[in-house]
Write a structure and sequence with these properties.
The chain is mainly α. The chain contains 15 helices and no strands.
Length: 329
């Protein structure tokens, strides 16, 4: 067979595999949607969802207080619906999550993972995920009187089906959506440069060590500069999520907790360990000492820390070369 014939055969096989999985996954979502649709007339579920609006109101208040650009984000209006109790059935909640997922994906593709829209969408998705977990475990209905047991069981069962569909999607979608990532690796190999925001969209989780290793290997001598810039971007996002809306100071406990979300105890998988490199243990110690050394850190203080990581990373044991802000590495 010629290489072109082989390429086409492989492409055909991939399409057949995709079609089979896509049909199967769509069926899972159809079953989940039907179950969710059946809960729309439940007054108990409507009450529980409206009672949950306070968690989204806290999120709205945080962005109102900490980010003057939040209200101009396209995702803000949808967050306000959640905060105002405008989501009163499970179908609406599911659709809201899908909308925020689309916003998050768009921001990632555009290389805008350091912006308000990305952070807002990500936090709303996390809050919706937690609410879904609380509905599955029935915790969302604790303390509510007059909610029929049948309504609670129906809501829990419907979200279990949706969870199964989501897990199947997450498990398999990477097989078919690796084109962007592979293009990023090719770009790193041929030009020695990649955009930090674009890369961050692929490693914004606790278990991306392998992807980081591939990216750093592809970048060659520019890898250390990339390490410093990605770490600075991580800190920037974490700081934005860790400001106390009342005091305007960094909440040190929340700051440390948010940083630790990027760590994993699974051998060889930790995003944080790969970013920190051989000085991982020292850096983790420095992070824990933030609470002791200065529990009243302001946003200005930690912005200075970000600048140090980018321009003089040896101060934080990262061993990267200085990087000019606003330029790809």
């Amino acid at each position: 067979q010629s290489s072109e014939t082989l390429r086409r055969a492989l492409a055909d096989d991939m399409k057949q595999t995709w079609d089979a999985w896509n049909t199967s996954n769509n069926k899972l979502y159809e079953n989940a949607t039907a179950a969710l649709q059946g809960t729309k007339v439940s007054s108990g579920i409507t009450t529980a969802l409206r009672n949950s609006s306070s968690r989204f109101k806290r999120l709205q208040d945080k962005f109102d207080s900490n980010d003057i650009f939040a209200q101009y984000s396209g995702a803000y209006a949808r967050l306000k619906d959640l905060a105002d109790g405008q989501i009163d059935n499970l179908i609406q909640l599911k659709n809201a999550k899908m909308e925020f997922r689309a916003v998050l994906k768009d921001a990632t593709v555009r290389g805008q993972t350091g912006g308000t829209t990305y952070r807002l969408a990500k936090e709303v998705i996390e809050e919706i995920d937690q609410l879904q977990k609380d509905i599955i475990s029935k915790k969302a209905f604790v303390g509510m009187e007059g909610v029929p047991k049948a309504d609670i069981e129906q809501a829990s069962a419907a979200f279990k089906l949706l969870k199964a569909a989501d897990e199947d999607f997450t498990k398999n979608i990477d097989k078919f959506s690796g084109a962007l990532y592979q293009n990023l690796i090719r770009q790193a190999k041929t030009t020695g440069k990649v955009d930090a925001d674009e890369v961050f969209g692929f490693i914004d989780n606790p278990t991306s060590a392998t992807k980081l290793q591939e990216i750093f290997t592809a970048l060659g001598p520019r890898a250390d500069a990339a390490r410093g810039q990605l770490t600075a971007l991580l800190f920037k996002n974490v700081i934005a999520d860790s400001i106390d809306p009342v005091t305007k100071l960094i909440n040190p406990v929340k700051f440390t907790t948010n940083i630790m979300k990027y760590d994993s105890k699974d051998l060889g998988k930790s995003t944080l360990k790969e970013l920190f490199g051989p000085e991982y243990s020292i850096n983790m110690g420095l992070l824990r000492e933030i609470n002791i050394l200065n529990p009243r850190l302001t946003k200005k203080d930690l912005n200075a820390l970000i600048n140090n990581i980018e321009t003089n990373p040896s101060m934080f044991k990262l061993g990267a070369e200085p990087v000019k802000k606003g330029t790809p590495f």
